[in-house]
Automatic annotation (TrEMBL):
Species for this entry: Aquarana catesbeiana (American bullfrog)
Keyword tags: Transferase
Occurrences of domain Sulfotransferase (ranges): 18-147
Pfam families named in the record: Sulfotransfer_1
Name used for this protein in its record: Sulfotransferase
EC identifiers of the protein: 2.8.2.-
């Protein structure tokens, strides 16, 4: 089942707030690294505050959806006090319009595609929730054709 597609309306109609901070990245492009930097800045460099909760709790993942009873990213964000730190892997054209309407601060992280592919390949080797990535050569071919996750 594709839970994101089933719950897409909630993502598409998500209401950003003017003080939201959106971190938008391609997967495996430095998302977690950037989240930690932003959280450190938001906490005036007091690194102990970054330890208050795991990264995925401090930065809810906007489009993540799992089968109930696990709440969606939208549900979590709707119950998160401002200022909210939001993570997304959505491309620009799929980010909810409310982020642009409210002129939310947005941090976009891009990474060299070769480095990104290497990172993603080793992630997929480890991640047993994804199909086997095959050999490196097979993986690169699919990556270049846009056929990988």
């Amino acid at each position: 089942m594709n839970h994101i597609a089933e719950q897409w309306e909630g993502v598409e109609k998500f209401q950003a707030r003017p003080d939201d901070v959106l971190i938008a990245t391609y997967p495996k492009a430095g998302t977690t690294w950037m989240q930690e930097i932003v959280d450190s800045i938001m906490n005036n460099g007091e690194l102990e505050k970054n330890k208050r909760a795991p990264t995925h709790v401090r930065f809810p993942f906007l489009e993540i959806c799992s089968p109930p009873p696990i709440p969606s990213g939208v549900a979590i964000l709707n119950n998160t006090p401002s200022p909210r730190l939001v993570k997304t892997h959505l491309p620009f054209e799929l980010v909810p319009e409310s982020f642009w309407e409210h002129k939310c601060k947005t941090i976009y992280v891009a990474r060299n595609a070769k480095d990104n592919a290497v990172s993603y390949y080793f992630f997929d080797l480890m991640n047993k929730c994804q199909p086997d990535p095959g050999t490196w050569d097979q993986y690169v071919e699919r990556f270049l054709k846009g056929e990988s996750m």
